[in-house]
TrEMBL record:
InterPro entries: Aa-tRNA-synt_II, aa-tRNA-synth_II, aa-tRNA-synth_II/BPL/LPL, Asn-tRNA-ligase, Asp/Asn-tRNA-synth_IIb, NA-bd_OB-fold, NA-bd_OB_tRNA
Keywords, comma-separated and alphabetical: Aminoacyl-tRNA synthetase, ATP-binding, Cytoplasm, Ligase, Nucleotide-binding, Protein biosynthesis
Molecular-function GO term, any one: ligase activity
Residues covered by the Aminoacyl-transfer RNA synthetases class-II family profile domain: 130-430
Family: Belongs to the class-II aminoacyl-tRNA synthetase family.
Organism: Bacillus carboniphilus
Protein name: Asparagine--tRNA ligase
Leading EC class: ligase
Keyword Protein biosynthesis: yes
Phylogenetic placement of the source organism: Bacteria, Bacillati, Bacillota, Bacilli, Bacillales
Length: 430
């Protein structure tokens, strides 16, 4: 019976055939232990000299790392295995041998591993991170489909900057200037006016010259927009969504979390509702913690976000930032003209902001005024202004950064390990 490592539990005490690669091996006299992987998982294959043909045992002793093969074996329960099973090998058919595989079981430097990212993905920990990433993507679609959202795909090539910044990748669109999108939000607002509750999931680009462990040049965003939703309504969706993601990973990625030595006790606490703190109170909290450099009106850096998050054991919303440090489209606070109705969701354990969101301006004159204050060319945003002219309603939305969320849930130190082929300030290879 041909199967995969993931499916071996269905064939206990039965003979199966699995296509696999050799991740590692060791031998002890008359027994060879093969660490096998097939993309669905990892399993140990035990080759006993007395149980196989002589050429099979010789092959088991000499086969090299990352060689590919078909393994015929009997599935056996093994409580010591993370998978709970192992293979008693009966036959090995070599498909392709691998010579001088560059990533050996010894320690390698980060730059070397990044240069060989196309091969590093095969390792246990990188495999585990990618499986967790996949589960978060799967759970995202499940959550929003269940909640009645419609998936909409905004354009990647745009004629203007959604947030009016200059950190854009410029290109030529025939005779016009164009930019790689840094957010699909404005287009999603248009979609929300047509379809009510929508979400996008796609790549975004920031030409930000940052080298921190929390930044990528190309990354993926989930951006929901909701008509007739206040900021408070949106916060409830956000905390339910993040809770759903965490619980889905806990349920469906047990082996991967164990492979990464993730402390799951911290993740098990992630259940809605989440604590909330105003920007004003966050400033006071930071002063109490000795951050005398921060003043009202300043944006928070990584050390500030970490200090705020450390006061809680769940992600925390920081509410109502000063108007001057937020984009033009955010709805003013009804009782104050110096702050807007927005929130950043800060993950625990030093992982920083994973969501930014707000209630959006729906008054045409106010939107036009804000655009002028931000020196935005009204001609480029005429279509966006139309949304406030023709049946505008209160609406809210947010954006979740996929890679930062993967980093937090999987517990990896650097965001570059959370995307298959990271694009960094000085890295466009492989």
């Amino acid at each position: 019976m041909k199967t995969t490592i993931r499916e071996v539990s269905k064939f206990v005490d039965q003979e199966v055939k699995i296509g696999a690669w050799l991740a590692n091996k060791r031998s002890s006299g008359k027994i060879a232990f093969l660490q096998l992987r097939d993309g669905t998982g990892f399993i140990q294959g035990v080759v006993v000299k007395s149980d196989v043909a002589e050429e099979v045992f010789t092959l088991a002793k000499t086969i090299t790392q990352e060689s590919s093969m078909y393994v015929t074996a009997v599935v056996q329960k093994d409580e010591r295995s993370p998978l709970g099973y192992e293979l008693l090998v009966k036959d090995i058919e070599l498909i392709s041998d691998s010579t001088d595989y560059p990533i050996t079981p010894k320690e390698h430097g980060t730059e070397f591993l990044m240069d060989n990212r196309h091969l590093w993905l095969r390792s246990r920990k990188q495999h585990a991170v990618m499986k967790i990433r996949n589960e978060i993507i799967r759970a995202t679609y499940e959550f929003f489909n269940k909640e009645g959202f419609v998936k909409i795909d905004p354009p990647i090539l745009t004629g203007s900057a959604p947030e009016g910044t200059t950190e854009l990748f410029h290109t030529k669109y025939f005779e016009e200037d164009a930019y790689l999108s840094q957010s699909g939000q404005l287009y999603m607002e248009a979609a929300a006016m047509a379809l009510g509750k929508v979400f996008s999931f796609g790549p975004t680009f920031r030409a930000e010259k940052s080298k921190t462990r929390k930044h990528l040049i190309e990354f993926w965003m989930i951006e929901p927009e909701m008509a007739f939703y206040t900021q408070d309504d949106s916060l409830k969706v956000q905390e339910e969504y993040v809770s759903f993601l965490v619980q889905s990973v806990l349920e469906n990625c047990k082996i991967e979390l164990k492979t990464l030595d993730r402390d799951t006790s911290t993740l098990e606490k992630i259940q809605a509702p989440f604590p909330r703190i105003s920007y004003d109170d966050a400033i006071k909290l930071l002063h109490e913690k000795g951050f005398d450099d921060i003043e009202w009106g300043d944006d928070f850096g990584a050390p500030h976000e970490t200090a705020i998050a450390d006061a809680y054991d769940k992600p925390v919303f920081i509410l109502n930032y000063p108007t001057g440090i937020k984009p033009f489209y955010m709805q003013p606070h009804p009782d104050r003209d110096d702050v807007v109705l927005c929130a950043d969701l800060i993950a625990p354990e030093g992982y920083g902001e994973i969501i930014g969101g707000s209630e959006r301006i729906h008054d045409s004159e106010l939107m036009k005024k804000r655009m002028e204050e931000h020196n935005l060319p009204l001609s480029a945003y005429e279509w966006y202004l139309d949304l406030t002219k023709y049946g505008s309603v209160p609406h809210s939305g947010f954006g979740l950064g996929l890679e930062r969320t993967v980093a937090w849930i999987s517990g990896v130190d650097h965001i570059r390990e959370t995307i298959p082929f990271p694009r960094l300030l000085n890295r466009l290879y492989p």
